[in-house]
Amino acid sequence: MLKSIAKASLLAAALTMPLSVASVQAEEKKDFKVCWSIYVGWMPWGYLQDSGIMKKWADKYEIDVEIVQINDYVESINQYTAGEYDGCSMTNMDALSIPAGGGVDTTALIVGDYSNGNDGIILKDKAELADIKGQTVNLVELSVSHYLLARALDTVGLAEKDLTVVNTSDADMIAAYATADVTSVVTWNPLLSEIEAQPNATKVFDSAGIPGEIIDVMMVNTETLADNPAFGKALVGAWYELMSIMSSDSEEGIAARTAMAEASGTDLAGYDAQLATTKMFYTPAEAVEFTKAAELPATMKFVAEFLFDKGILGEGAPSPEFVGVAFADGSIYGDANNVKLRFDPSFMQMAVDGAL
Amino acid sequence: MRIINRRPSRVTALALGMVPFVATIVTYAIASHYRRLENPADKLLPSIERMGEAFWRMAAVPDRRSGDLLLWVDTFDSLWRLGTGMAVSTLLALCLGIAIGFIPHVRSTLAPYLATFSLIPPITILPILFITFGLGEVAKIALIVIGTAPVMIRSTAQAVLDIPREMIIKAETLGASVWQMITRLVLPQVLPKLITALRLGLVPAWIFLISAEAIASTTGLGYRIFLVRRYLAMDVILPYVVWITLLAFLLDRLLLLISRRAFRWHHLGSDAL
Questions:
Q1: Separation in Å, CA of B239 to nearest CA in chain A
Q2: Predicted confidence pLDDT, tens digits, chain B (273 residues)
Q3: Is residue A22 included in any domain, yes or no?
Q4: In total, how many domains does chain A have?
Q5: What is the 3-state secondary structure (H, E, C) of chain B?
Q6: Which residues in chain B are classed under CATH 1.10.3720.10?
Q7: Is A157 among the domain residues?
Q8: ipTM of the complex
C-alpha cells in the first residue's frame, strides 16, 4: 500500500510536470503567442496574421509571434490567465476580474477601441428604459452586458433588485428573444443589430451613453513584456501599420476590411456598420491620449466597484481596492502593493514618435 | 495460483479501491503546488484548502446579493429538474415500452419512429425547444426527457421482448387476459430492468441538465459552474464537480438498493456493478 502510494506520487509528479511548466516563465525568449476572439475591434488581429504584416514586424525584431484565434471569448482569457498565451484581446473589465484578479500581472499594451453603441439594451414592445422595472432581463451574467445594465439602471434611479437577471448564453440570445417569455435582453454586436431588426424591438440604451467605459485592449503579461521589449514593439508596430491601412478608403484598405468582414461572418457593409458603433483608435496618438486622460481612472473605479459588488474581484477581496490598477501618470487606484493591471502607453508612444 | 483465481481480502479490496482516488488527489496537489510557486493566486489549480473555503462559502455563508445559501438552492433546483425529468421519462418508458414490446401493432407503428427519433442529438434542436416550451423550467425538463426517454423506452421494450415465449404461452393457456399478463407476468420481469435503464439514463440526464442550465437559468448546479467559469473560479467549479459526482453516485446506489430490496428475484444470479 505504502509502496503503491510512493509509486503513484512519482508517477503523478511526472504527469504533472507539463501542467506546471506550461505557465509563462519570465525570461528572454524568441517565440510568442497571443490569442484573440471574434469581435469587430479585434478582427485586425486575424488579418495581421493572414496578411503577413505580423511576420514582417516580428522578423524585424528577430522574434516569432503567432496570433491564434479562439472561438470562445471567455476561454481565450482563461487560456491567457493559465499562462498558455503571452497576450490576449479582452475588455478592461474582464482584464481586471480574470487575469489581474487571478494574480497574473497584466499590462494594457494596445488600447484598440471602445464600444460606442456596440453593446445595448433592447426591450420588447416598450419604448423607455424605465419600463425595464420588474421585468426579467436575459443577458450573459457578469459580462460587459451586465455592467452596461448596472450603469444604465443608475441613470434612471433603478437598481438590479428591481428586476430579475437571467443568465443566457450569447449563442442562444437570438433564439431566446424569439420566445414569448423573453421581454428584454442586453447583448452586443452583431447579436444586437440582429435583435434590433425585429419589428417589436426597441433599443432603449447603448454604450454610447457611457462612452469610453467598455474598452477593448490587447493585454499582455507584464513580466514577459519587461523581459522582452521586442515583443511589445513588434505587436505595436504591426498593429498601427494595419490601422493606417484599414482606416483609409484606398483599395488596400477596402480589401483589408472586406477580409475582416468575411472572417467575422458578415459583408463589408455589415462590418462598416459595426465599426460605426465602435470608436477605433486608428492612430497611436489618439490611443495614447485616451490612456493618459483623467477619465480612465474614474472608469476603472466604476468597474472595480461593479466587480466587487458582484463578488468576482479576486479571491476573498475585502474591498473594491483589493487589486491595484496603475495608470500612465504613475497614479494607482487601489492597493499599491498588489498592482496587477497596468495602463502603460509607452509602447504606443514609440509608435507616435516613429521610434519602432 | 493463477492471477484470475487470486481474490483480494476485504481490507485489500478496499485499499486497492482507494489507490486511484488517492493518486488523483496527490497528482492534483503536486500540480497545484508547482503552479502556486509561480503565482500564489493561481486560478487554474487552486489549493485544496482554498477549494474547501470556497465550498464552505457556497454552502454555509448567505450570498451577499440574495441572502441564499447558494449550494443548497442550486442543489435543490437541479435535483428537482432532474427528478421531474426522470420521473416523466420513466413513466413514458414503462407505458410505451410495455406497449411496444407486448403489442405487435403498437410495435410496428412506433418502433421505427422511436429508433430514428432517439438518434437526434437534442442539443441541436434547442431553438425549437425554446420556441415550444419557453425558456423556463419546462424547457429544461423537456430537454432531459427528450434526451433520455427514447433510449429508456427502447430498452424497456427489449426487456419485454426478452421474456421467454414459453411463459407467455403458459399464461395464455391458463386463461390470462392481456391486462392480467401485463400486471402479473410482464411487470415483475420488466420493473427491475426499468430501474437499470433509469440508472443508465441518469448519466445523459445529468449532461442534459447541466447544458440546459448553462443556456438560460437563474439557479442550478450547471448555472453556477457556467457563471463562475467567466472568471475562472476553479475553486468553486471543482468542488461543485465533486459534489455533482457524489450526488450522481448516491442516486445510482440508492436505485440499486431499491432494486435489490424490491426485486430480490432479479438479483439472485450474478454480481452487479
A1: 15
A2: 899 999 999 999 999 999 999 999 999 999 999 988 888 878 888 999 889 998 998 899 887 767 788 999 999 999 999 999 999 999 999 999 999 999 999 999 999 999 998 898 888 887 788 888 888 889 899 999 999 999 999 999 999 999 999 999 999 999 999 999 999 999 999 999 999 999 999 999 999 999 889 888 889 999 999 888 877 888 899 999 999 999 999 999 999 999 999 988 888 776 665
A3: no
A4: 2
A5: CCHHHCCCCHHHHHHHHHHHHHHHHHHHHHHHHHHHHHCCCCCCCCCHHHHHHHHHHHHHCCCCCCCCCHHHHHHHHHHHHHHHHHHHHHHHHHHHHHHHHHCHHHHHHHHHHHHHHCCCCHHHHHHHHHHHHCCCHHHHHHHHHHHHHHHHHHHHHHHHHCCCHHHHHHHHHCCCCHHHHHHHHHHHHHHHHHHHHHHHHHHHHHHHHHHHHHHEECCCHHHHHHHHHHHCCHHHHHHHHHHHHHHHHHHHHHHHHHHHHHCHHHHCCCCCC
A6: 67-267
A7: yes
A8: 0.71
A72 CB within 8 Å of a chain B CB: no
What part of A 200-259 touches B (C-beta under 8 Å)? none
Q: Which residue of B has its CA nearest to A182?
A: B135
A292 shares a domain with A144? no
Minimal Cα–Cα distance from B206 to chain A, Å?
Answer: 19
CATH number of residue A187's parent domain: 3.40.190.10
In a domain, A256, yes or no: yes
Is A167 within 8 Å of B39 when comparing Cβ atoms? no
Chain B within 8 Å of A278 (Cβ-Cβ)?
Answer: no
The reply to whether A301 and A219 lie within a common domain is yes
Residues of B in contact with A224 (CB under 8 A): none
Closest approach of chain B CAs to the CA of A241, in angstroms?
A: 33
Q: Please tell me the pTM assigned to this model.
A: 0.80
Determine the structural domain holding residue A235 and report its residue range: 28-115+213-353
Please tell me whether residues A45 and A107 are part of one structural domain.
yes
Contact B232 A178 (CB under 8 A): no
Whether residues A87 and A231 share a domain: the answer is yes
Q: Show residues of chain A in contact with B17, CB under 8 Å.
A: none
Architecture of the domain spanning B67-267: Orthogonal Bundle (1.10)
CB contact under 8 A, A23 and B35: yes
Q: Is residue A147 part of a domain?
A: yes
